[in-house]
Write a sequence for this structure.
């Protein structure tokens, strides 16, 4: 459940930060730029056309500013880099490579393909977590209704007979009375806690701690790790095959994975390469990569096909993540059953014990 909440929170915060520009808008922008540059349309003219037809006002304003930068003599990658909330580092770095190699149209197509796969992964995660979220919310609502309306009725009946409620029922009633009496205070505490945690997660330390923790969550932690390794493999392979220097490719890949903990490990890997270590030794020293990734990196270094080996890693993990996401409901069901069983047991003791005792009192 934490992974689902985390994903929705990140998506919402990203939506708020960049003025409503979503990953679909970036995919559309890259595909349109691929078509226009391949057709030989001048860059400024192409961007002005996209400015007029942009679906989001924030995207239109940003493209207009990029046009102004181009007219003032700035190159496209430099103009895009001035707006990191709209255009991610991966996009600007790849555009820079495309400008240097004269293959800007192919670069936009590669980035569009990469972003499309990212969107598919996000959509699959949201779909997989929908069922567990619905079950937990429904059970929570049922408990609230029983605690606030059903069980207090037994208290009135028992008082009428001068009898005492069973201990489990008294405990539930105590929680219910406390919630009814102090719900404004509880609500304020929850709101403050929510905004406090949210603000802490925006700090470097908070984001690093949560990014490290979510890789170790039960059930979903392994999926998140493999999805992150897929993102690393595909982004690094794309940059390396496009001719980006190894150190620079690791730098923008560290920002593209959107995980502070993994990004720090990639920076350590880059520092190791700068000291003269091989790619495989630097990757092994981080302690983050799976044996499969290390083995493919070693083979890639020996054959000079690191990009192809990492692409195969990305495709392998994509299949694994897709399979696990399709079956995540089956993996979470035992946890849900235990959780729901405990809640039902508490409710059963709270509801049926007073009914049994009430029949004794009436006799």
């Amino acid at each position: 459940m934490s992974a689902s909440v985390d994903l929705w929170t990140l998506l919402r915060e990203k939506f708020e930060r960049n003025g409503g520009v979503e990953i679909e808008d970036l995919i559309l922008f890259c595909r349109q730029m691929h078509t226009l540059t391949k057709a030989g349309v001048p860059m400024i003219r192409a961007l002005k056309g996209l400015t007029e037809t942009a679906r989001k006002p924030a995207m239109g304003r940003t493209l207009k500013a990029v046009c102004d930068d181009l007219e003032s003599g700035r190159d496209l990658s430099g103009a895009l880099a001035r707006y990191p909330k709209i255009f991610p580092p991966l996009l600007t770095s790849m555009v820079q490579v495309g400008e240097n190699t004269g293959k800007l149209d192919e670069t936009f197509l590669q980035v569009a393909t990469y972003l499309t796969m990212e969107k598919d992964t996000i959509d699959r995660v949201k779909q997989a977590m929908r069922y567990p979220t619905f079950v937990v919310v429904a059970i929570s609502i049922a408990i609230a209704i029983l605690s606030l309306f059903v069980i207090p009725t037994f208290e009135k009946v028992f008082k009428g007979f001068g009898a005492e409620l069973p201990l489990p029922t008294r405990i539930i009633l105590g929680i219910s009375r406390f919630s009814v009496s102090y719900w404004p205070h509880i609500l304020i505490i929850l709101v403050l806690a929510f905004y406090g945690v949210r603000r802490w997660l925006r700090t470097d330390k908070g984001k690093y701690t949560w990014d490290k923790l979510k890789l170790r969550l039960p059930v979903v932690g392994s999926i998140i790790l493999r999805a992150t390794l897929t993102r690393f493999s595909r982004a690094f392979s794309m940059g390396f095959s496009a001719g980006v220097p190894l150190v620079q490719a690791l730098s923008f890949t560290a920002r593209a994975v959107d995980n502070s903990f993994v990004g720090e490990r990639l920076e350590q890997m880059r520092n190791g390469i700068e000291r003269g270590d091989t790619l495989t030794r630097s990757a092994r020293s981080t302690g983050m990569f799976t044996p499969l990734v290390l083995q493919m990196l070693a083979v890639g270094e020996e054959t000079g096909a690191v990009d192809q080996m990492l692409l195969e890693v990305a495709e392998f993990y994509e299949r694994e993540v897709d399979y696990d996401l399709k079956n995540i409901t089956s993996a979470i069901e035992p946890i849900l059953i235990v959780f729901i069983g405990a809640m039902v047991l508490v409710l059963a003791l709270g509801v049926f014990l007073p009914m049994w005792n009430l029949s004794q009192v009436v006799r």
Notes: Residues 1-18 have pLDDT under 50 and may be disordered. Residues 15 and 33 are 23 Å apart (CA to CA).
